[in-house]
Fold each of these.
Amino acid sequence: MSRWVVAVVLASLLAAGSPALAEDGAHATGRKVWDVLVLRPLGVVQVVAGAVVFPIAWPLAAAVDAATGADYADDVRVACIEGPVVQTFTRPLGE
């Protein structure tokens, strides 16, 4: 099992390559591999963390909004929920 993991990690690193040495097609493939193997799973972790933090942070931001007239509650929603969801699930692959 560990040989398989090492092979996948090594293949993804080799596929990513150096931007200065890669052709446009190879570089785009490397970005997509990096996106699928690393960034999307990290995005799922970020979505879960945002779902945990949001119920704590939003009431505090709403209280500050009520006291100051600012719009921090919307910023908290975007930072904890919208941003990670868009980054993980709707962003084009490799971008």
Note: The helical segments are 2-16, 24-68, 72-90.
Amino acid sequence: MARSAQPTACTLEIPTPASRRQHPIDRYIVDFVTLDGRLIVEVDGATHSTKTELTRDAERTRILESLGYQIVRVTNIDVYENLAGVHELIAVTLSST
């Protein structure tokens, strides 16, 4: 019996025609973006838990929001263990904009 592959951040797909992975916006490269919905999805690992990184992430979020984007942050663990929930979060967020 074949084993199913473990999901990764690369497994995450945003089901819209104008979505991009590792896309430049202003001075940043965002993990995922849907250009038509102006939604950015950032997949954060363990390095995003330090005080310095949290401060950097807050500044990055402020700048990206000032450009008209909504930001959703999920963890690597969310993607590995609850990919369906991450997809649902994206769909709900996109439908509410």
Note: Residues 1-9 have pLDDT under 50 and may be disordered.
Amino acid sequence: MRAGLRHKLLIDLLAKKATRTGKPTEDPIFSKKQEPLRWSRFKKTAPEQMFETVQQGSSLSSRPSARGATKTAKATSPTRIT
């Protein structure tokens, strides 16, 4: 089974558990502030709104890791092939 599919199944199971128990999802992938970034919501928005969401992306995209630190992308220099 592909890792992406396993991840989606896990997220679906956690969402169903939260719905069934009435408790919030433990360590959610998207915070309330990041809800517009969910593909299921993003794909239904108007193009103008999509553009605004992407522009705001840097303020929406960081998410606390399991240890409470914020994940950030590591800058790397491009590899030159000669």
Note: The longest helix spans residues 3-21.
Amino acid sequence: MANDEHVAMLKKGAAARNAWRKANPFIHSDLRGADLSDARPLQELGWTSGRNIQFTYRWERGDAERMGVYAAELMDLAPDVVLAATTSALAAVRRKTRTVPKTVRRMFAFQRCPL
């Protein structure tokens, strides 16, 4: 369950989140299961792509070897958060975090509903 204080801080925008991170460097935001559907658009909250937030995409098309290469590329970027479309993609990232001396604070996988 998400920490209500962390969710509220995130919804305040980039400046509030960055100030909180600076004041709490050893506390990681807990946003597990958070409903951010009512959050304002990212730019309105002060997040600007390429400046203080970056989205990087990789599609391996089911190729396990390519998945490992992409996972290594992503770990070289030292992300704070990884969102994987499949559990196998997330597993590839987890394997790389054991071999690359970088820390990913949060990792998520989402699955399509089979119905």
Note: The chain has two domains: 1-33, 56-115.
